[in-house]
UniProtKB/TrEMBL annotation:
It comes from Melittangium boletus DSM 14713. HAMAP family: NadA_type2. Its main location: cytoplasm. This is Quinolinate synthase. Binds 1 [4Fe-4S] cluster per subunit. One of its GO terms (biological process) is 'de novo' NAD+ biosynthetic process from L-aspartate.
Amino acid sequence: MSPHVDLEQEIQDLKKRLNAVILAHYYQESEIQDVADFVGDSLALAQAAAKTTADVIVFCGVHFMAETAKILNPTRTVLLPDLKAGCSLSDRCPPAAFRAFKDKHPEHFVVSYVNSSAAVKAMSDVICTSSNAVKIVNRVPPERNILFAPDQHLGRYVMKQTGRDMVLWPGSCIVHEIFSEKKLVQLQVQYPNAEVVAHPECEASVLRHADFIGSTKALLDHVLSSPKREFIVVTEAGILHQMKRGAPDKLFIPAPPDNDCSCNECPYMRLNTMEKLYQCMKNGTPELTLPAELQTAALAPLRRMLEWSL
Ligand code: 13P
Ligand code: SF4
């Protein structure tokens, strides 16, 4: 690509030409967040996708999020800058294995985290995200047993909050499972006035040190409204962009993972780049498509989630 191409300007022009909307998750690189029409957590992005009237949804996030957008708004074209932008939770819950797991618990009401494939969603009774998981599980009729998939850590957190017992699929997020409790405690000693805010995909040993637990959007809202000045942030580092933007005078300290890597970025989310975003809008590919039958089957539990989230 010519070094003189102004990617941001080109993307803005393409947006007008295609009548497109760019939806981006908080874990996208800062430049992508800045060029997007809407930045949100997975629930807000699903809601935005469901109601957009744009012809094209350019989804800057991971595959399951783009799939959700397509299922909720099937007449729109959905583009994803890199189709390989998967998710460890979704990838490690293959539909055939999930079917077998579900068959072992035939009486259970199936609540699936949105970080799952369309095929797993299609086998579920209702979907949840990290921002509405407690609300959704509380809505499951009390006489029903619950099977929760695929994030065991979110599942345990929800069990604690709701008092409901649940059978858990043993999945986890490769980004959130490697935060180090030891390093977090060391940071707390170093910054005694800092509040710890954490995503519920973290392990219980990390979550027990958190002053506030919530979805990416909930974490953002919390740090912006809190009177505290310092925060240790235990989630993917992309969220720091909006935190610093919203409160430039506050200090945000990213929690360190349990390895020598100094960053905690989601390798799947970061497959999307400004260059790929530009190329996908210019070429109209890669486009996310789904078999019509699967789309219909996955729509019912997603719709139920949106209803139960109100
Ligand atoms: P949110 O729903 O909080 O945006 O989380 C999505 C996700 O993939 C977290 O790892
Ligand atoms: Fe999936 Fe974890 Fe990446 Fe979120 S951060 S998209 S759960 S791998």
